[in-house]
Predict the structure.
Amino acid sequence: MIPVTTQMALLRLAAAFVLAPLLFGVINRTQALFAGRKGPPLLQMYFDIAKLMRKGTVISRTTTWVFRLGPIVGLSCVATGCLLVPFAGLPAPISFPGDFVVLVALLALMRFFTVSAALDTGSSFEGMGASREVQFSALAEPALLVSFAVLARQTSALSLSEMFGQVSVIFWQQAAPSFILVLAALFIVFLAENARIPFDDPNTHLELTMVHEVMVLDHGGPDLGFILYGSALKMWILGALIVNIVIPIHEISVWPDIFLFIVGMLLLAVAVGVVESVMARLRLLHVPQLLVGAVGLAILALMLMLGA
Amino acid sequence: MMTFFLSSVSLLMATGLAALFSRKGSLIAVAGCILAAILGLIPVLASLFTSAAFTLRIGWNVPFGAFSLEIDPLSAFFLLPVFLLSPLAALYGQAYLQNQGGHAKSWFFWNSLVASMAVLVAARNAVLFLVAWEIMSLCSFFLVVCEHRHAESRRAGWIYLVSTHLGTAFIVALFLLLGNSAHSFDFNEFIRSGIVSSPAATLLFFLSVVGFGTKAGFVPFHVWLPEAHPAAPSHVSALMSGVMIKMGIYGLVRTLTFFNAYPFSWAAVLIAVGALSGILGVLFAIAQHDVKRLLAYHSVENIGIITLGLGTGLLGTSLQLPFVAVIGFAGGLLHVLNHAVFKSLLFLGAGAVALRAGPRDMDRLGGLLKRMPRTGIAFFIGAAAIAGVPPLNGFVSELLIFYAGFDGIVAGSVPVVAATVAAVAALGLIGGLAVACFTKVFGIVFLGEPRSREAEQAHEADALMTVPMLVLASLCGIIALASPLILRVFKGILPGLTHLSAAECSFRLDRAAHTLEGFLAAAAAVIVMATALVWARRRLLSGRSQTVVVTWDCGYVKPSASMQYTSSSFAQPLVDLFGSILRTHKHLEAPAGHFPSIGSMRTHTADIFRRLLFDPLFAAVQHALIMGHFLQHGRIHLYVLYIALTLLILLAVKLQ
Amino acid sequence: MAFPMDSLLVCVVLIDLALLAVNRLVTLVRIAALQGVLIGGLSLYVGGADAASILTATASLVLKGIVFPFMLMRAMREASINREVEPYIGLNLSIIFGLALLALSLWLGFKLPLPVAAASTLIVPVALFTILAGLFLIVGRLKALTQIVGYLVLENGIYTFSLAISHQSSWIVELGILLDVFVAVFIMGVITYQINREFDHIDTNQLSDLKD
């Protein structure tokens, strides 16, 4: 018999796998609301993925196995990431000290394969996107790690489950300024890693200006479906890091916890939609500045925590 | 056990000599190298698994010298890469040099190099250590200038020779001071004399960091690496970068065991040196176009990571944070082995590419994965391993260093947190940049379309060359898989460094093993899911249309290979971002007119330390020495006169 | 730990960092003004309810929040200055320098002995950092206008510092400093305008040629 906690953990995991694409629907709806449009249906991402899964593929003759492996490894990485990140208060299925480093490394593995797959096509556009992607992520990685350092220091915990298990109202009262700064840093990393405005415009159709979307120009059919679903899961994971800090809930009871958490995720998506509606894309030259700023915010949070 | 070791060393020397005199010498030497490695691995593995130490002392008629050898777990750990990589690289080198026209005599230096490194690591006497050190430096010099007909090789050789001897000078000073205070040149006496931390000890530490750091490639003493590695034949670069520069790390670690306690400042120095070497190494690597030069800079980066690990360990020891100490050292030392494996793999791969495709300039390569599939897959695994992505070995050691760092952040006082956060942030930045760098290398060299005729006509290397690469590639995976087991060997090594008992060490190592098991579970999840998805994709696509066309090119009529992104363009955002450090020179000929035909851009990134630190320094030294020029006439009888005068004066002084 | 006060102080630090990172002159002036307002608000929060401290705080609020930005904007408009900041030291590097300065001031701030206990442990380090950030703006930027802003930020820092020991110092001193700065900004604004009219630019680098 499966113990109750495992059942609940599986339930939360299922929620992640099912609900992740919904975030994109909420973002698009928010944007549409701002622009006074009706917008695509909330479930558009599901329709897209389902349709792609039913299609054949068109592949460049330049490509090799690296190209075909790219989307597959990418999706496996973020799916494994879902096993590492705790949702709604319960410990994650795989939890050990230092698991957040593995999470960061899984994102790096995903990037390694996505970028290699992009270069495999020999297209200059995809090379351009790949080159930008590695630059931005190289700066986002220290920001993420220093943010984890702040959380670890404050909670005296070395695994994500323990960390988020201890973020409580009391912690918020003790070190609110630090937490706000870390949240800001994480939000910047969230936007950068998920290729959202102000870092990247997922809706543009000009190859020269894109970062993430341009890397997957040559993928089609199920491959593109994997990529879309992978990016949804990635957004869910990184979003969960933020929501877990903002809503310090544990074990009020199971269903309200899950409900609150999902509401939090949807609100985060609304926030992304608002940012995208009121901001323009940054000039590419200024993107590193914002990311260096994120590292700065995280370091500042740590300094305040040590000082206080 | 020491019989195995001695016979291994003598076999190396004997077969090496055979290479000098016999026509089939190279075959004998390679066979000898392989056999010697097998013999040598016996005591090494025995020591590692039982934590035992095997000793041997033979009388030796050298003042202060003694032929005193010992294989303890620390020595055994550093002997492991020596005996693991030298036979693989030798097999490869045999085939490689065959294509380059022989150089049979170089095998004498190769075997002597391997033997000297083995003796160096086992030596327990400072004089013996220095003799082995010097033989190692000279043999590697001769191997670097193997292709001495190229002026470039000769120049690189001189730079190497000068810098390695500058380093040796510091090491000699170090051992003289140590010997002076211990009244013996025996390493065990150094330990027994119990050097406590004091200004004198700090001087010793400084000497060892500079002396051994020159061999290891700490910034700013790394300037010889990017010259020597590209000039040497690939299997020699593999051995030098994979194994020989680790002798510098070994020297540093061995010196650390002589001290009773470490002040906090030493740890801070090592972390700073590690962060600097790591970040600058990878930055300069990104800006390079020559694959081997790029790999040489990556050695600097990885030495930086190792030093970050050692620095973190030192920090834990100095401030009584046992967990940080144990895991930091373990991570740093494990990275020694890991780097040896993947760096030699990458150098061998780069050699295969140079041999079969021609140009070393990345911007003239491309599309090699289809033409050299086995080399390509081995290089891909090596690139992923060095970039530090799971599930390969490069990530395992980085994970340990991260773990130690985060533990310091959680448990330490304010200075500890400052140091460990610096280490963690530096390691994060290095990791991100390494991914950028190695997606660039693999993507530009092996993927896309060939950018030159030579690359287009490339074909797979001989089996003798690809098999060692594939073995090394599988080692990258095996070490990662076996990492929780490998951690156990450290319980014999770490007590000497952390001043903790073996039980205390193994308790902490078990905690780290728990983390590694968690990581392996995550890695297994990735692999299972990826396999499932491959299967799912095949099922989904069966019976559907799978069209193969040209790459989407935005509607150009005639796409050509020269339109692809090159290594310079791929690196440009990062090079520009760090422009104030790299100071890349750009030569731009912009296309002009209404129908532009010619336009070109070249970038060149010179080493700032060489240009701004060493060139002026050596110019000044040369200027000073020019004053002694009047003594030099080129006439033999004058020189005999100088010698006679010197002897007379010395005699007079002595008899006074 | 006084939560609202610390949050205000953290905002001041963030503004300092933003000042180092920002690329547009207009934004620079605006955030400097925001910082003035924040610090004015802070002094209202910390200071007593007596007329003197309310007067000082209000004066500083009005001057730094409204008058100075207005004057600087006017000077900028009339001198039709290029909108970019033109740093000597790159913006990314400035942020890193800023963090180093912050670490330094945190360290100094906790070491520094104070005659009386400050209202918050953060107040002295933040004041020091603001002073250093102002100095950095003066040293690391090219234009006369950024130097005025740097001077303003410097004054913000000094003002914050005085808050730490507000019970001791007289409000007359506060007003005196404020008046000084007012005159300084006024004169510099006018001079900027004049320099521009004479030389068609306000690059301080080229002004140094005048010494020959």
Notes: The CA atoms of residues 177 and 301 of chain A lie 7 Å apart. The first helix of chain A runs from residue 4 to 35.
